[in-house]
Write a structure and sequence with these properties.
A mainly alpha (98), B alpha+beta (115), C mainly alpha (208), A: 98 residues, 2 strands, B: 115 residues, alpha+beta, SH3 type barrels, 4 strands
């Protein structure tokens, strides 16, 4: 049995102005399918583990700060790369992955 | 004359919605059907009003709602018409390099005073 | 407009980060921390997220269908609902039409009320104090900062959503779009056009 995914507005509020999802003219930007999957993975993992968004947001802000966009990398590409970093960091810290 | 979008004709001069085709508003008895009879032409529309000391013109009725400063707290308050009221920029801010423009606000009837 | 799926006629090698994402998903699925279906569900839902494309559809339809435009200006809620849109903050809509003589802009000086169901998330600048104060007190300056210059004889009308009504601007259809399909027209109708801080132009349509 699976519950409906949280509303996107919930995710937006949780990420706040600190690390907002990339948007263009109000629409979410996914340049490649992996970016959407990264977002989906993050949402599902948080739902399943019960980890709060504040915890994920901390990891995300740290990842963005540690590894900002490189030469030639798009804003969305950099963001979702950091998203993966943050997800791995959260899971590692909780002992769920190595 | 500027284009102003208003409500469909099943709204009475007091801002209540009435079933389509009704002649009189079931809530307050005001005539519904024709623009002339719905209270706007001789009544509210084009009425000069004062809001906080500024003169504006009622252009159309939007609907009827309870005053938010009472309704929010669950206090008893009847619904009253909400009007679209147009203010000339000159009335609000005086002369401007930009010329003149209009600011339209939606205001509960309680907020309006006679000029 | 922003996330069109590319034609994969020529398969290209996956990028490093793409492989990484795939590997992570496989690992998490193995550990029971995600399921492919659950991730699919999130992606599908969020890709369909309400953005200004709903409003763009309403405007494009009004541009090609005069009877619809009339319905939209008379009873916006019903006309918008015809296209399947609506909901909280969108069930008390008024659409205001730009004409050669009138340019409309919307603002919420008290807070930042916004017609979510047709325009999606409000832009940060719309919620800012400077916009909320200056849109009503110096609209031409604000418009010029957005790159919009209007003739002196065009009347500017600012709609302040001070009660329950939410406003949407119906911009004028630009020249150079004769014969365009609704889909092509939608692609040039931006969120800012429907707030009143931009004018649609017949740049080459992303959908063409």
């Amino acid at each position: 049995m699976s519950a409906d995914p949280p509303e996107l507005a919930t995710v937006d509020r949780a990420l706040g102005d600190q690390a907002p999802l990339p948007r263009d003219n109000g629409e979410l930007v996914f340049e490649e399918p992996w970016q959407g999957r990264a977002l989906g993975m993050g949402v599902v993992v948080l739902e399943r583990t019960g980890a709060p968004w504040s915890e994920f947001r901390r990891h995300l802000a740290a990842a963005i700060s540690a590894h900002p966009a490189t030469e030639g990398e798009s804003a969305a590409g950099a963001y979702y790369r950091c998203w993966l970093d943050a997800l791995e960091a959260l899971l590692a810290q909780r002992g769920l992955i190595d | 004359m500027t284009e102003v979008a208003g409500q469909e004709p099943t709204i009475c001069g007091r801002g209540h919605h009435a079933p389509v085709g009704s002649k009189f508003c079931p809530e307050c008895g005001s005539p519904v059907d024709s623009p002339a009879a719905n209270g706007l032409a001789g009544g509210a529309r084009r009425r000069l009003v004062m809001v906080g000391g500024v003169v504006g013109v009622v252009e159309t009725v939007r609907g009827a709602d309870r005053l938010p400063d009472r309704a929010t707290y669950g206090l008893e308050t009847p619904r009253e018409p909400v009007y679209s009221v147009a203010f000339a920029s000159r009335e609000l801010w005086g002369p401007s390099d930009e010329g003149v423009w209009t600011v339209a606000l939606d205001l509960w009837e309680s907020y309006l005073e006679a000029p | 407009m922003s996330h069109e799926h590319h034609d994969h006629h020529h398969p290209r090698p996956a990028s490093a980060v793409e492989l990484r994402a795939q590997a992570l998903e496989a690992l998490l699925a193995e550990r029971g921390l995600v399921s492919t279906d659950a991730v699919d569900a999130v992606v599908t839902l969020y890709e369909q997220d309400v953005g200004p494309q709903n409003g763009a559809k309403v405007v494009a339809r009004a541009w090609v269908d005069d009877a619809y435009r009339e319905r939209l200006l008379t009873n916006a809620n019903a006309a918008i609902a015809e296209l399947g849109f609506g909901g909280i903050e969108g069930d008390n809509m008024i659409v205001v039409a730009n004409t050669a003589g009138v340019h409309n802009m919307i603002v919420c000086t008290l807070c930042s009320c916004y017609p979510w169901p047709v325009l999606g998330l409000p832009p940060t600048w719309y919620k800012s104090s400077p916009y909320r104060a200056r849109a009503v007190s110096e609209p031409r300056s604000v418009l010029s900062e957005f790159g919009v210059t209007l003739d002196d004889d065009v009347e500017i009308r600012i709609w302040d959503s001070s009660a329950e009504v939410r406003y949407l601007v119906l911009p004028m259809r630009p020249s150079g779009t004769e014969g365009w399909t609704q889909t092509e027209l939608e692609a040039i109708i931006t969120r800012d056009c429907m707030i009143g801080t931009a004018l649609p132009t017949a740049r080459e349509s992303a959908a063409a």
